[in-house]
C-alpha cells in the first residue's frame, strides 16, 4: 500500500491527517441534493404605445372667412395676419406680401437694444446726449428739448420709451446709432431667424428716398423737408413713391410680424425681464387709439406699434398697426394689419383694423 503520508510525520499526527483526507474524498454526488423548482414564468411587461402627437387645432372658419372678406373688399394693397399664440393656428390674407412697415420697424430697434442689455453690453440707464445734428423729420417731440450746444441729456431707456409710446423718430434714430446702426438691427433679425422682415436705412434716409430727395441735414429744421419735396416735379415724386411701395426697403410680411410678436410673447427672442418690459411698453403706447385699439373690449389687454407713411395724391404708403391682444382668460393673439398703399380715408382704414380685432374677439374660445 502506498503511503499517503511519509514517515516523517509522527504516527498520531499521520493518523489524524489520514482520516481527514479520506473524509474529503467522499464524492459530492453521494450527497443528496434537494430538487429546485424552476422559477415561475413572469410575463414580460407590455410597453404602452407612445402618446399620439397633439392634433393640430384648426383656426376658426368664421374668422378666416371674415379676414378674407375684409381684405378682398378693401381698396388698396392690404395684408392681414392673426396668430393664436396658445393654439398655434394662423389666419391670413395676403400675409406673405412684403408691405411698408414705416414706424413698425421701431420694434426691431427696441428688440436690438434689449438683446444687448440681456447680453450685458448696455443698460437702460446708460446716458445718451441728443444734439441738433441728431434731429430727423416728421414726428419728433424730443426736438423741443434739444437746446444749445449741450443738447438734451437723456438715457437709453427714455429714448426707447419715447420711440415706442410716442413714435418719436429722433429718439428712434438716436437709439439706432447708439446700438451700431442698421447693420446691428439686421444682424439681430438674422440671428433670431426673423425672416421676411427687412430693416431700412433709418428714418432720415428712408423718408428722403420715398419722396425722391437726397437727405440734407437742413431738412430736419422747420418745414425744410416739406418745402424741398413740394419743389420736385410731380412725375419724379410719383416715380419715387411707386419705387418705394413696389419694393420697400423696410418691407415686411404680416405673417412674419405676427410670428415675431408670438415669439416675443413666448419669450423666444429676449429674456423674460426684457420681454415683459417691451410688452408693457407697447401696452402703454399713446399712438393709434382708433386703429386696432379702438375695438379692444373691456377686460382685454393690448400692446401695439403703429406705422404711417407719406401721402401723395390721396394715397398713403404704409398705414399699419401690429400688436398683441390678450383675452381675460390669458389666451393671446398676435395681429398684424398692414395697408401698403390705399386711397381710402383714414376712418375707413381704422374701420378695417377694428373689424379684424372684433372678429378675433368674436371667435375667441
From TrEMBL:
Question: InterPro entries per the record?
Answer: Beta-lactam/transpept-like, Beta-lactam_cat, Beta-lactam_class-A
The enzyme class is hydrolase
The Beta-lactamase class A catalytic domain covers 79-338
Question: E.C. number, please?
Answer: 3.5.2.6
Q: Where are the transmembrane segments?
A: none
Q: Which reaction(s) are listed as its catalytic activity?
A: a beta-lactam + H2O = a substituted beta-amino acid
Which SUPFAM superfamilies does the protein's record reference?
A: beta-lactamase/transpeptidase-like
Stored PANTHER family: BETA-LACTAMASE, BETA-LACTAMASE-TYPE TRANSPEPTIDASE FOLD CONTAINING PROTEIN
* Record-stated family: Belongs to the class-A beta-lactamase family.
Q: What is this protein called?
A: beta-lactamase
Q: Which organism is it from?
A: Sphingomonas psychrolutea
